Amino acid sequence: MSEQLTLQNETTATAINRVNANYWKNKNVLITGITGFVGSWLTEILSSPQINANIYGLLRRQSNPNLRNIQHLLDRKNIKLIKGDLQDLGSIVNAIKESQADVIYHLAAQSFVPHSFASPIDTYSTNVTGTLNMLEALRLTPRDVALHYAGSSEEYGLVIQNNEHYKTMLLKYNTILPAPNFDSNNNVINEAPIKETNPLRTVGTSPYGSSKRQAEDACRTYVSCYGLDVHITRAFNHTGPRRGNEFVTSEITRQIAQGIKDKRKSVTLGNLDSIRDFTDVRDTVMGYLAVIEKGTKGEVYNLASGKGISIAELLEISLNIAREQYKVEDMKYQLDETRLRPTDLPVLIGDASKAKEKLGWDNHIPLNRTIIEMIQYHLSLLS
């Protein structure tokens, strides 16, 4: 297992070397969603001996919490888990007090888009009410604490690209508000790649995207009304080792790893046409750190590669790696209609020029390397 994860460890070490250790050393950092995908990577980087921040993780009260993503970190003396619940305002107030937090990363969310269609009430409750309780707890805290709110590219909803696309979408949805902008020749102005100033459309989005947008609106309200120090990012698709199996990059790499092990011949997926913008999770974490260090409160910063890739292309990249490195041949795509969403945004490509200019942030880890590490990670789980 350790041999398979060597490349992952090298990439992580390189990311740690990019962190401003002087800023974060001995900072008290409270993380909601610490056991999740991004939370575990943020914890791994900030709790490392080179950085040595004090990490407090808000752990939901339950008899058997899933600690798999952070199990390898729990022997670090600068990590402490605090029992609490985002639906319970008092427990959040207590967590902030116990941790004496300088910075809070609010990462806990119901983030799986298909689940949001099946369970919208759970999604809104977790993402909106949980965020409101966090904001209110900060308002009641008699000390300055910086909060990072992890928004999402799903908040943008439908992105109009040209006249033909606009006509097609009008036939599908009847009304699109706000309407796109037109040039002097009455042609639609392409809204991609997506800037922070793009419209946030309900049309075409999911209950997840809608809930994240409502929670973000609450963040800005608490900034303007109460002066809270809240910093907002909208990360586009971030991926890497430890990504949940329900997400497409993990679906692909997990099935390929299984094929390497047992010679299976198919990769079962839903829609291959969607175009997404993928960033390695460790680069996303660097953006989360940079926005606290250099961002302006209440401002929004996209974190994106600026490169669109279809799920079909992502699959082909992954299969090529399997062929070249593991001599796996003849794996084919197989459609699973149960994986198709009621609505699926055709294109999400971000423009991160603001984050690059204002925060000094950028992507460093190539997608190919991330995919290789994900295949290795899933192989390690099978060994």
A few lines on this structure:
The chain is of the alpha/beta class and 383 residues long. The protein has 13 helices and 13 strands.
Distance between the termini: 7 Å
Biggest sheet, spatial arrangement of strands? 3-2-1-4-5-6-11
Structural class: alpha/beta
Assigned CATH architecture of the domain at 6-157 and 194-242 and 278-306 and 348-364: 3-Layer(aba) Sandwich
Shape annotation: globular
Overall CATH class of the domain at 6-157 and 194-242 and 278-306 and 348-364: Alpha Beta
What would you give as the CATH superfamily of the domain at 6-157 and 194-242 and 278-306 and 348-364? NAD(P)-binding Rossmann-like Domain
Explained architecture:
- It is a single chain.
- The chain has 383 residues and is α/β, with parallel strands linked by helices.
- It has a domain at 6-157 and 194-242 and 278-306 and 348-364: NAD(P)-binding Rossmann-like Domain (Rossmann fold), CATH 3.40.50.720.
- It is 42% helix and 15% strand.
- The chain has helices at residues 6-17, 21-24, 37-46, 89-99, 113-118, 120-139, 163-173, 207-226, 248-262, 281-294, 311-326, 353-359, 367-382; strands at 28-32, 54-60, 79-84, 103-106, 146-152, 229-235, 238-239, 266-269, 275-276, 279-280, 300-303, 309-310, 332-335.
- The strands form four sheets. A seven-stranded parallel beta sheet has the order 3-2-1-4-5-6-11, sandwiched between helices. Strands 7-10 form a two-stranded parallel ribbon.
- β1, α3 and β2 form a beta-alpha-beta unit.
